[in-house]
Amino acid sequence: MSQEIRNLEPKALWNKFADLNAVPRPSKKEDRVIEFIKNFGNSLGLETFEDEIRNVIIRKPATAGMENRKPIVLQGHLDMVHQKNSDTIFDFDKQGIDMYVDGDWVRARGTTLGADNGLGVAMIMAILESKTIKHPAIEALFTIDEETGMTGALNLKGGILKGEILLNMDTEEDDEIDIGCAGGIDVTATRSYQEEETPEDSVGYTITVKGLNGGHSGMDIHKGLGNANKIMNRLLFDAFENFGLQVSEINGGSLRNAIPRESVAKVIVAGMYDEAYVFDMQEIINDIKTEFKTTEPNLTIEIVKSDLPKKVMDLGVQEGILRSIYAAHNGVYRMSADMDDLVETSNNVARVIIKDGEISISCLTRSSVETSKFDLANGLRSAFELSGCEVNLAGSYPGWTPNVKSEILDLLVHIYEKQNNEKPKVVACHAGLECGILGTNYPDMDMISYGPTIQGAHSPDERASIKSSQKFWKFVLEILENIPLKK
Hints:
Elements: H1 3-6, H2 11-21, H3 31-43, E1 47-50, E2 56-60, E3 72-77, E4 99-102, E5 105-108, H4 115-129, E6 138-143, H5 146-149, H6 151-154, E7 165-168, E8 176-181, E9 183-192, E10 195-197, E11 202-210, H7 228-243, E12 246-253, E13 263-270, H8 274-291, E14 300-305, E15 311-313, H9 315-327, E16 331-335, E17 343-355, E18 358-367, H10 370-385, E19 390-397, H11 407-420, E20 425-429, H12 435-441, E21 446-449, E22 454-455, E23 463-465, H13 466-481
Parallel strand pairs: 3-6, 3-7, 7-21, 8-20
Antiparallel strand pairs: 1-2, 2-6, 4-5, 5-23, 9-18, 9-19, 10-15, 11-13, 11-14, 12-13, 12-17, 16-17, 17-18, 22-23
Helix pairs in contact: 2-4, 7-8, 7-9, 9-10
C-alpha cells in the first residue's frame, strides 16, 4: 500500500480506507472483512456483534455532554464491486486494492477502487476510533452484500437498532443530499438448446467489443453510454440475417449493477461469405463508432479469424434469442414526472452467457415507482418468453420515498449552507440505496444519505476526490455535534 495514501488529509479517514482496502471484500465473500470489522470494534473495547445474516453492529456511547441528543445509526456496506480491465492481472479474492494518487484523485491500478462504499465505512471507523470527535450515542451498522442483492439490509430484523436517525454514507456527489432512491428487481432469462455440428466449409471468427466506459447501472444509466451486450447483439443480428452467421458462444458483461464494458462471441460463417461478411461488418462497426464517438471514444470492435468451433447453436433458437435481446429495453425507460432530471425507471441488460447448450441473460431493472418497475420487468419477461426462455423475477427491493419534512434534512441543509455559502442539491437518486429497505422494519427512523464525490463507480475508472473527502469530513463532524435533542 502506497504511503502517499496514508499521508492524505484527513489522515484518520484515509488511513482507515487504506486498512479496509487491504482486505479482500467481494460481495457474497465477506468473511474476511466481517472479521476485520469485528476485530476493529473489539480492539476499541466497544460492544460488537453480528446479526443472523452477518451484518456487523458496533455501539459507542455518547461523548460527555452529548448524552441528551438523539441516538444515531451510521451506516455503510462492507462489500465492493469487483471489475478490472481485461489486461489487468489481479485476484480480488486474495489481493488488496493497489491505490495511487493522481492529482486530486485517488485511483486503483486497473481495478475498481472500492470507494463505493469504502470511504463511508472508513468514515464510520474513524469516528468510532476517535477520542476527540463529539457525538451522540452511535450504532455503527455495516451491512453485507449490498452490491449483488441488498442481502444485509433485506434481512436486518426490526428491534435490533435503537437509533432514531440514520445517516447513510453511500452517495457520490458531495453537493447532494439524498432523500430518496430507486428500488430494483433482477430479471433473469434462461433456457437450454440443442447444439449442432459445425457445417463443413465454415470459417471461425472471434468478435470482441471492448473499451467502453461502463459504470454504475443506476447513477450512469442516463449518460447514453454503450452497452457491450447490445452492441454485440446488433453485430450478430445483422450477420445472421445477411450471411447466416451461427453462434458458438457468447460471454458478455459481468455484474448486474455494472453497465457492460466488454463482450466476446465465437461465431462461424459459411466460407462462401467470408470476404463479404468482413466487409459488411466493417461498415456496421464504423456506423456504431460514429454513433458513440462522443460518449465512447475508446470503443473497440475487433473481428478476427479463429479456430473453428466444433458446435454451434440451433438456428431456430439462435434467431429467437437474438430477436429477444434486440427487443429487450436497455437504458432509461421513463423520467420522473415529479422531480426534474431524475430517472424514474430503467433497465440494464447486464450479462449474456451462451455456451454448451445453455443460455442465461441477466438484467437489473430499477424504478422509484413500484408499479413502473414491474411494468418494465414484465415487458422484459415477455420479450424473452417469446423465444422460449423461462424468466425469473427475483430479489425485488423497495425504493425510498422522499420525506421533505425530515428534521435531519433541515439540519444538513443548514450546516451545508453555512460551510459552503451555497445551498446543497436535495435529490432522490436512481441508484439502490439501503435506506428504503431498512425503513420497512424501522419506519419511524429519520434517514438521510450523503457522501464524498466518487466518479466512475463500478468500473476500473473509479476515482475518489481528495478535496471532496476533506469537505465530507468537515461536514460529518459538524452534523454529529449538532444532532437534535431527545424529545
